[in-house]
Amino acid sequence: MRIVSIRGHTFLAGPLGPESVVADLGAHKGEFSREVHQRFGCHCHMVEALPDLFAGLPETETLHKHHLAMAGRDGPVELFVSANPEANSITRTVAGSQAAVTVESATLATLMSHAGLAHIDLLKVDIEGAEIALFESAGADMLAKIAQISVEFHDFVPGMLGPNEVNSVMDKLEESGFYKIKFSRKLNTDVLFINRRLIPVGPLAYRYMKYVAKYLRGVLRRL
């Protein structure tokens, strides 16, 4: 299967098309969704917490936006506003700031209900440290509705996440029927999970992607 990378998130392109549903958690200015839509024609749901960024997101028949902070629970939450526009977070450590605004948070189940989604073909997760609680709160029935997940784990932020927390989430996803492929060289900034019940990837194809294609892509990038 063809592997592509958009804005640091690597995933399988083959299963995506005009009828596919993409959930872009941590949409920022919508760059990821716009490129995915342009290349594959998918219906993209952009989820952004910061009010100013959310207001600037486009909205069309196939680009949808939701003003939410993804988290492990529903309800009001403080969003800390960082000097780095891509590091706003419900965790003060990640944002490195005391300045905050109050926004509504949502779990995966709540987002899918709010957006009227029966399934998600590609879930992109870049939510500045909230990914652990998000996945911890997701039940097996919810995860079974997601075909592939591209995650940036924020264990590279000092004092943010310990390796046990990230490993626990990875183990949970693998136990829920996902193959795991780490495309980032050292850190867990680009990790793909493929639901083998929804995407027909056999053991040989999985091993090729995990042990061969991954390194070939790295060599080509360096060249």
Features:
single chain; 223 residues; alpha/beta; Rossmann fold; seven-stranded mixed β-sheet; three-stranded mixed β-sheet; 12 strands; 32% helix
What does this structure look like?
The protein has 223 residues and is α/β, with parallel strands linked by helices. It has one domain: 3-Layer(aba) Sandwich (Rossmann fold). The protein has eight helices and twelve strands. The strands form three sheets. It has a seven-stranded mixed β-sheet, sandwiched between helices. The radius of gyration is 17 Å and the shape is globular. The model has no long low-confidence stretch (mean pLDDT 90).
Q: Which superfamily, in CATH terms, is the homologous superfamily?
A: Vaccinia Virus protein VP39
Instruction: Summarize model confidence as the mean pLDDT.
Output: 90
Major sheet: size, sense and barrel closure?
7 strands, mixed
The CATH class label is Alpha Beta
Q: Low-confidence stretches at least 5 residues in length (pLDDT < 50)?
A: none
Order of helices and strands: EEEHEHEEEHEHEHHEHEEH
Q: From the 3D structure, determine the CATH topology.
A: Rossmann fold
- State the end-to-end distance: 23 Å
What is the CA-based Rg, rounded?
A: 17 Å
What is the number of beta strands? 12
Shape: globular
Number of helices: 8
CATH-defined architecture = 3-Layer(aba) Sandwich
Tally of discrete structural domains? 1
Helix content: 25-40%
The percentage of residues in β strands lies in 25-35%
Structural class: alpha/beta
**Cross-sheet strand order for the largest sheet:** 5-4-3-9-10-12-11
